[in-house]
Design goal:
Strand content: 15-25%
CATH class of the largest domain: Alpha Beta
Shape: globular
Protein name: Phosphoserine phosphatase
Largest sheet: 6 strands, parallel
Distance between the termini: 28 Å
CATH topology of the largest domain: Rossmann fold
CATH architecture of the largest domain: 3-Layer(aba) Sandwich
InterPro entries: HAD-like_sf, HAD_sf
Length: 213
């Protein structure tokens, strides 16, 4: 069996969906410029591979989850429906044509990422971050293992076990240094328009192949 794993933001999408969501909501006056600027600080931490996912989750739940409904979310998804990297869309289609199992694994939150994955990329198998819910109330904490860094490896292993998969060959495409553990774990890892830290890693890590579009 062959499995093709894809990061979402800046790999399939040409943007970071959560960063762009804050921009979108600020333009609609749903969130303030201060919140937009605060999110930018978290985004810089993510780019540098030092994001405190617990603090960001609290921030995200407080400022996004409680401020958007399904109608707003649908409009947002429609607004970015063409913001994908054409070459990566073609690679995704090629894997589908070859009957490979295609999975999107993202550190973005399920509430935002899943509608994007399903509507734009037609993928139903998604590994993402979700929130703890108690008595139908969303808590500002991540459910299970955060799907970031080595957590992506752990959650993929859990997915394989759940689906009874013992042997497989894996492809993985990502732009981010945060995904280095899963890139190293995969049989065929690809760095797609990599960030500076991942590009530096490629100088010593010959296993990961470079894709520039």
């Amino acid at each position: 069996m062959k499995i093709a794993l894809f990061d979402l933001d800046k790999t399939l999408l040409s943007i970071d969906c959560e960063k762009y969501l804050f921009i979108y909501l600020q333009k609609k006056n749903i969130v303030s410029k201060k919140i937009l600027n605060d999110n930018e600080k978290f985004y810089k931490d993510y780019e540098n591979g030092v994001l405190n996912i617990e603090l960001y989750t609290e921030f995200f739940v407080k400022n996004i989850v409680y401020n958007i409904n399904k109608k707003i979310l649908l409009k947002f998804v429609n607004s970015i429906r063409k913001m994908y990297i054409t070459e990566m869309m073609n690679i995704l289609k090629l894997h589908k044509k070859k009957k490979h199992k295609c999975i999107i694994t993202t550190s973005s939150y399920k509430k935002i990422s899943n509608p994007i994955c399903k509507k734009i990329f037609k993928i139903k198998d998604i590994l993402s971050n979700d929130f703890i819910r108690k008595d139908d109330v969303i808590k500002p904490k991540i459910k299970g293992t955060p799907n970031i860094g080595y957590g992506k490896v752990k959650n993929f292993k859990k997915w394989k076990k759940k689906n009874g998969i013992k042997k497989c060959k894996t492809f993985f495409y990502s732009d981010s240094i945060n995904d280095l553990p899963l890139l190293n774990y995969s049989n065929y890892p690809y760095a797609v328009n990599p960030d500076k830290k991942l590009l530096d890693e490629l100088k010593k890590n010959k296993k990961i192949k470079l894709l520039i579009f």
